[in-house]
Design brief:
The protein has helices spanning about 5-20, 45-50, 75-90, 105-115, 125-130, 170-180, 195-205, 220-225, 235-245, 290-305, 310-315, 325-345, and strands at about 30-35, 35-40, 60-65, 95-100, 120-125, 145-160, 185-190, 210-215, 230-235, 250-255, 265-270, 280-285, 320-325. Strand 3 (about 60-65), helix 3 (about 75-90) and strand 4 (about 95-100) form a beta-alpha-beta unit. The chain has 2 domains: about 5-155 and about 280-345, Bordetella uptake gene, domain 1 (D-Maltodextrin-Binding Protein, domain 2, 3-Layer(aba) Sandwich); about 155-270, D-Maltodextrin-Binding Protein, domain 2 (3-Layer(aba) Sandwich), CATH 3.40.190. By secondary structure, the chain is of the alpha/beta class. It has 12 helices and 13 strands.
Length: about 350
């Protein structure tokens, strides 16, 4: 068995164990955790060693909060980092992943927001908890309340149509909708999810009359699209990939910036002259005011992990690739997405 396959199996096993007792809430200690991973050695990184010289961090167990149920992509990403992080930290401590799902991610994010800024409680999150939910005006925190550590991966959301569709480009799509107002429909997995907000920005700018059909998650969108119930799919590129490669679908618009071989010819929102906010990202953040020396130790360790051959292979098995941004770049991305999402959410009348 290949190393990457073994790693995937181990991660899935950890997620399965965690899901057995999935009763977490932000105010309870009855959270879902792994048994933890203990560091076996120090990082070889000169940068980490230099930074660590100014602090004895870490010297206690670190918990990674995941504001989702066990078994999803973000949870699996957290567990990949959990398993590898001890190898790259300067001191020997245990690492555990803690799932606090539900409540529009607010309970889990609040747990991190209110934690001590000492580096022992951090979060692994995707874009919605940071760049969308705070824009709804329902949280005590906002997009820049947390201390960014690093982004670890990103993939584009896309618009796809059936392979036999006469639409072969984004411009074809725009022209068709303008010529046939109210006829074209697309499926999406949530009103305020990343692909719908990104596509809505184009719809608003181009003043398009189109039907948005909201389903409960991306799997339902795929089923509806493949069954011919909607004209287009708007969602994760990773989920539609198999159908593109089998010849059943084609991607005609990249809502983000990440480009893969199977949709390399699709134009992006930036090509059309609009802001590209259609990438779904995953990264790590810490509580407000976490000291920079702690952030740099974690950032550097994560950067090294993303260069680990086993991790790269595991991400590839998941249809992902490592995309690293340091804490400064990641915070800018979070903020840029938040500002644009807030504008669209207001235009759609989804918040006061």
């Amino acid at each position: 068995m290949k190393k990457s396959s073994r790693l995937v199996t181990m991660i899935l096993a950890l997620a399965l164990v965690a899901s057995v007792s999935l009763t977490a809430c932000s105010s309870s200690t009855d959270t879902t955790t792994t048994a933890g991973t203990t560091a076996s050695g120090a990082s070889d990184s000169t940068a980490a060693d230099s930074t660590a010289a100014n602090t004895d961090y870490p010297k206690e167990a670190i918990q990674i909060i995941v504001p989702y149920s066990a078994g999803g992509n973000t949870d699996l990403m957290a567990r990949i980092i959990e398993m590898k992080l001890p190898e790259y930290l300067p001191n020997s401590v245990s690492i555990a992943t803690v799932n606090i799902p539900g409540g529009s991610y607010i309970p889990g994010m609040t747990e991190v927001y209110t934690a001590d800024p000492d580096g022992y409680t951090i979060a692994c999150v995707a874009g919605s908890p940071l760049s969308i939910v705070p824009a709804m005006g329902e949280t005590d925190y906002t997009h820049d309340s947390f201390t960014a550590i690093a982004m670890i991966t990103s993939f584009a959301n896309v618009v796809a149509v059936k392979a036999d569709s006469p639409l072969n480009s984004a411009q074809d799509l725009i022209d068709y909708i303008k010529a046939n107002p109210g006829e074209f429909s697309y499926g999406v997995g949530g009103t305020t999810n990343t692909p719908n907000l990104a596509l809505s920005s184009l719809i608003i700018e181009e003043e398009l009359d189109v039907k948005s059909v909201v389903y409960n998650g991306n799997s339902e969108v795929l089923t509806a699209f493949l069954g011919g119930h909607v004209d287009a799919y708007a969602g994760a590129s990773t989920d539609i990939r198999a159908y593109v490669e089998s010849g059943e679908a084609k991607i005609i618009l990249n809502l983000g910036t990440v480009v893969e071989d199977y949709y390399a010819d699709a134009v992006t929102m930036e090509d059309l002259g609009y802001a590209a906010i259609g990438d779904s990202y995953t990264g790590f953040v810490a509580p407000p005011d976490t000291p920079e020396e702690i952030i740099l130790i974690l950032e550097n360790a994560i950067k090294e992990i993303l260069q680990d051959e086993d991790v790269v292979a595991t991400l590839s098995d998941m249809g992902l690739q490592p995309v690293f941004l340091d804490h400064t770049e990641f915070q800018k991305m979070i903020s840029d997405y938040y500002v644009r999402n807030e504008e669209i959410i207001k235009l759609l009348g989804l918040t006061e």
